[in-house]
Amino acid sequence: MKSAPAHQQEPLSKARLRVWLKLLKSVNGIEAEIRRNLRDRHGTTLPRFDVMSALARFPDGLRMSELSTFLKVSNGNVTGIVDKLAQEGLAVRVAVPGDRRAQVARLTPKGAAEFQRLARHHEGWIDTLLAGLSAQHVEELSGTLDMILSRQSEKEPIDAQ
Prior knowledge:
This protein is mainly alpha-helical. Helices cover 67% and strands 11% of the residues. Strand 2 (91-96) and strand 3 form a beta hairpin. Residues 9-150 form the HTH marR-type domain. It comes from Roseibium salinum. This is MarR family transcriptional regulator.
């Protein structure tokens, strides 16, 4: 009689670790492909795309500090990207009335159009990269990831044993 494969006899923690490593490898591979496509086909970067994406979600604009918080990057990173977008006429920075230090960034109509063009390509790349997933797979995986994300939002400390 054959015994069960070794990975079926190990603790669930080891199986979870393997799932994490597969998720990480998958995300890193997809991100590398997106970075390559943005660079080679459009002469832009993923951080720049991310800033434009955030600003597209907030047409009235975001304070620079809100933008950096939203993207989970430093104020300096966001400032450099927004400055470059502004130089190219894709974004503007507007002073906040009553607060001389604060500025709101938003896409210009040209920037919004450019982002929409890039976003269509981005969606197509993701669709191609995940083409092996059926609608049922997408729904199940999305539900599983929602469960993981909700656990993270609880901000419980990790108790390594």
